[in-house]
Amino acid sequence: MNKVNILLTIFLVFVIHYFDGFKNIYKIYKRSYESRMQSTHGFCEKESFGFYNDMVKKYEINKYKVIQENYESYPLLRGFFYEKDIRLDKKFVLILNYPYTNLPETLKVEGKEINLSNLKLLEQKNNCYLYIFNS
């Protein structure tokens, strides 16, 4: 029984070492949740977690209706910022990873044609944009 415990312990340490378990635990401990999410999901690439998170902090867009499109075919991050009760007095358009430098006047977002000239641009960073419908 004692040899089995020693072998299991050696095997467990080997597996942890092989998969960089000690380094990964250290990284989780040292880096914040937001930093880890942004390095995994990108700022204005991939799912654009960093841009989305900044907009939630600055404009609280998770509390309002948001029409959004990610042009790199990544899934949208609504689930990370879910709010049960959505207010209807503001409506935002979130455009992530648009492939060209200039946005056209009209753009298809979630299957709807949106005329961007009727909206107010609140934020733009790289190829990510946040618009609000004029009230």
Written account of the structure:
By secondary structure, this protein is α+β, with helices and mostly antiparallel strands. The chain has 2 domains: 2-30; 38-133, no CATH class. It is elongated, with a radius of gyration of 21 Å. The protein starts with a helix and ends with a strand. It has helices at 2-18, 21-30, 33-41, 49-59; strands at 64-70, 87-96, 106-109, 112-115, 119-125, 128-133. The chain contains 4 helices and 6 strands. The strands form 2 sheets. A 4-stranded mixed sheet has the order 1-2-6-5, with helices on one face. The protein has a two-stranded antiparallel ribbon with strand order 3-4.
Helix/strand class: alpha+beta
Form type: elongated
- What is the average of the pLDDT values? 88
Count of distinct strands? 6
Sketch the topology as an H/E string, one letter per element: HHHHEEEEEE
Q: How much helix, percentage-wise, in residues?
A: 25-40%
Order the strands across the largest sheet as they lie in space. 1-2-6-5
Supply the number of helical segments.
4
CA radius of gyration: 21 Å
The termini sit apart by 74 Å
Largest sheet: 4 strands, mixed
Poorly predicted spans? none
* Domain unit count: 2
The percent range for strand residues is: 25-35%
